[in-house]
From TrEMBL:
<dbReference type="InterPro" id="IPR003591">
    <property type="entry name" value="Leu-rich_rpt_typical-subtyp"/>
</dbReference>
<keyword id="KW-0433">Leucine-rich repeat</keyword>
<dbReference type="InterPro" id="IPR001611">
    <property type="entry name" value="Leu-rich_rpt"/>
</dbReference>
<dbReference type="InterPro" id="IPR055414">
    <property type="entry name" value="LRR_R13L4/SHOC2-like"/>
</dbReference>
<protein>
    <submittedName>
        <fullName>Leucine rich repeat (LRR) protein</fullName>
    </submittedName>
</protein>
<dbReference type="InterPro" id="IPR032675">
    <property type="entry name" value="LRR_dom_sf"/>
</dbReference>
<feature type="domain" description="Disease resistance R13L4/SHOC-2-like LRR">
    <location>
        <begin position="235"/>
        <end position="334"/>
    </location>
</feature>
<dbReference type="GO" id="GO:0005737">
    <property type="term" value="C:cytoplasm"/>
</dbReference>
<dbReference type="Pfam" id="PF23598">
    <property type="entry name" value="LRR_14"/>
</dbReference>
<keyword id="KW-0677">Repeat</keyword>
<dbReference type="InterPro" id="IPR050216">
    <property type="entry name" value="LRR_domain-containing"/>
</dbReference>
Amino acid sequence: MRNIYLTNYITPKHVFRLLCLIVVLVSFGCSKGDDPIPEKSSEKKITSFVFLLTNNPIDVNVVATIDEVSKTISATMPRGTNIKGLLPEIKISKQATIDFDTARDFTDPVDYTITAEDGSKAVYTVNISAPLSQKQVLQAILDANPGNTLGWDMDNAVDLGNLDGVSTDNGSVVELYIHSKNISVLPKEIGELVSLDLLVIKGNQLSTLPPEIGKLVNLSNLNLSSNQIASLPTEIGQLENLEYLNLFGNELTNLPTAIGRLKRLSQLDLRENELDTILSVLGQLNNLELLFADGNRLITLPPEIGQMSNMVSMSFDSNNIVSVPPEIGQLTNLESLSLEDNAILEIPKEMGLMTNLLYLNLWNNPLWNVPQSVCDLQSGNGGVLFLRTNIGVGCN
C-alpha cells in the first residue's frame, strides 16, 4: 500500500517540474563556470619622465623627451649639472611596474624595464647630458694631460680670464693660447667651448683631434702648428667661420675632403708635413688668399687651383713638383708665387696672364727656359716682376 501511495502521489506534472528545476540548476551552474576571466593589461609605457628641482641639484624642472617608437628618453640638464646622482619622477602605465625608482648615475645611458600586468616587458634607454661649465672644460684639459706645464690653479680660479693663456668674455672662454705646455691630448670636452674664437695649441705633442672640434662653430683662428698630427677629423669641415688655419710642422699625409667646406678660409698653412697631393676640393675655397705648402712631397698641383680667384700668395718650395697646370694662369690676383727647389722642367705660358704677379721664384728647378709671356710681365704689370731662376735660364 505504501508504494502504491507514493506512485499515486508523484504525478507526471511533478516529474515535469522536477526536470525543469534540474535543467535550470545545471544551466546556472554551467554559465557561472564559463564566465570569461578578465584579460590582463599589456600596457607598459613610461608616460612622464621629469627631474624636479626639489629632488635634484638644479634650479628648474627638466622634462625629458620620450620617443615611443625608439623607446628612448632624452634630456639636457642645466650647464654644469652633476649627472651622477639624479632622481627622476617617473610615471608609467596603470597596473605596470618599473625596475628602478631610485637615484641613478646618468653618465652613461641607463635602461629602465617596464613590466605590464600580463608579464610582457618594454625597455627604455635614457640619455641625459649636461653641458660642462667653462671651468670644467679647462679642468678636463688638465686631467687629460697629467704631465702638462699649464700652471692653472683651478681650485682658486675665480676669474678664468686670469689663467695663463685664457681670455674670457662675459664668463665664456673666447681665446685659448697653449704654447709648448706638454699637451698630448685634446679631450672631447673642448667642444663645449662654443664661444671660442681663437684656439692656439702649438709646440705640443698632439697626434689626433677629437671629432668634437667641429662644435667650435664660432672659431675663426685655429693654430695647431708644430705638433704630431697625422690626420684631421672630417668634422673640421663644420668650422664654418674659420678664416685662419695653421697646420705647419705636423705629420699629415692627406687632408679630408671636408676641408673644402671652409668657405671663409683666407689663410692655410700646410708647410712641413708629408702631403703627396693637394686636394682638388681646395679649389672650392674661393676666399683663400694665402696658401703655403712648402716642405711636403707634392708631385703635381691640381687644375682646380685656378679656381682660387682671390689668391694673393702661394708657396710650394721644397717639394717634388714636376709640372704646373696651365689653369694657374687664371689667378689674375696672384702677386707672389714661389716654386723653389722642385723638379719643374717647364712652366706654362698661361702664367703670362697673371698680370698682378710681382714675385716669381723658380730657383733650383731643371728649367732651361721661361715663356716669353712670363718674362714680359716684368714691365707690363704696373710694377717690376722679380723673377728668380737659375743662372743661364733664358726667355723663350
